[in-house]
Specification:
The protein is an alpha/beta fold. It contains 16 helices and seven strands. Helix 13 crosses helix 16. The chain is globular.
Length: 344
């Protein structure tokens, strides 16, 4: 349909080529991509920060693709996915007979990434015992395989990523301060999906097209009520959660219409939004209902802002824009209470 065709623009195709399928043009995302463009041509170490599911690996690939190392190896390793006793071998490799079970020589990720880029995901999960060895590689660009005294020299660029607060880990002595400062040369913060809601429509269409093509289906329509629900939802799992729910919806789709895949609300959670009315109405209703559930508190760990996954200042700004302020606060909540039960 027309909306889908408009999104298949030359500008979108250029963005896909340049940023390896990073979808969206919200101010928050554009700010992060501007930082990517700034640091990519250098050989500096980059630390990609962001919540789980925000697309940190795509940012790392974009840094590689926009650098002079494009076309050379892009090697990745998730530090949280490898058992401690195998992680050193995965990083640096080992010689035959270096330990029980080492029946052949193994090339590690550092050696594989020589002349290219090594992406270490979940760097906050790197064991303390291996951190000095990683620091040495970053500083000297050299290492030894496990069980070997021969020094290997390499030339690579490191991009690391984490959802953890490394500064707090350093304060708790859970992460070496010297390694943290060596990694934190140029941080790039990937915004969570709730801070780039302008991109949700485009992301939903993109994922619907991708999965429909893979499954041999044809999605002609995403109802506005479904799209409004997407925009209002807090997305704790970020883009990955949206992607997975769209895949589920495509599987369940009939007659070219994408159903709403969002989970049904529970009785002890914030009452959901009605499919009637404008998006502004939906947003105001959600905020009022959340304020009611929070006992009128805006800030704090149990306040409305935390329940909505927003910063306190962001929620206050939204309340001002929607005309929700103290003199009318109780009146507006009473109006919501008197209305019919709401359901997504």
């Amino acid at each position: 349909m027309g909306a889908f065709e408009r999104l298949r623009s030359d500008e979108r195709e250029d963005r896909d080529r340049q940023f390896d399928h990073i979808v969206g043009n919200s101010p928050a995302l554009e700010s992060a991509l501007a930082e990517v463009q700034r640091v990519a041509p250098t050989d500096s170490t980059v630390l990609v920060l962001g919540e789980t599911g925000t697309g940190k690996e795509l940012i790392a690939r974009a840094i590689h693709n926009l650098s002079a190392r494009c076309g050379r190896p892009f090697v990745k390793l998730n530090c949280a996915a490898i058992p401690f006793d195998l992680l050193e071998s995965e990083l640096f490799g080992h010689e035959k007979g270096a330990f029980t079970g080492a029946v052949a020589q193994k090339i590690g990720r550092f050696e594989m990434a020589d002349t290219g880029t090594l992406f270490l995901d979940e760097i906050g999960d790197l064991p303390l015992g291996l951190q000095p060895k990683l620091l040495r590689v970053l500083q000297e660009q050299e290492f030894e395989r496990v069980g070997s005294g021969r020094t290997h020299h390499i030339n690579l660029r490191l991009v690391a990523a984490t959802h953890r607060d490394l500064a707090q880990m350093v304060a708790r002595k859970e992460f070496r301060s010297d390694l943290y400062y060596r990694l934190n040369v140029f941080p790039v913060v990937v915004p969570p999906l709730r801070e780039r809601r302008e991109d949700i429509r485009q992301l939903a269409v993109h994922f619907a097209e991708v999965f429909a093509r893979r499954m041999g289906k044809h999605i002609e329509q995403i109802p506005e009520t479904t799209m409004d629900a997407f925009i209002a939802y807090p997305w704790p799992g970020n883009v990955r959660e949206l992607q997975n729910l769209i895949e589920r919806a495509v599987i369940r789709s009939d007659d070219g219409v994408l159903p709403n895949p969002l989970p049904s609300p529970q009785t002890n959670t914030t009452p959901p939004i009605a499919p009637q009315g404008t998006l502004r109405d939906h947003e105001a209703t959600l905020i009022l209902q959340t304020l009611r559930a929070a006992g009128g508190m805006i800030g704090g760990p149990r306040g409305a802002a935390a329940r909505l996954g927003l910063k306190r200042t962001t929620l206050v700004s939204k309340m001002k824009r929607l005309g929700i302020y103290r003199p009318r606060f109780q009146q507006l909540i009473d109006e919501v209470n008197e209305g019919p039960e709401l359901a997504v």
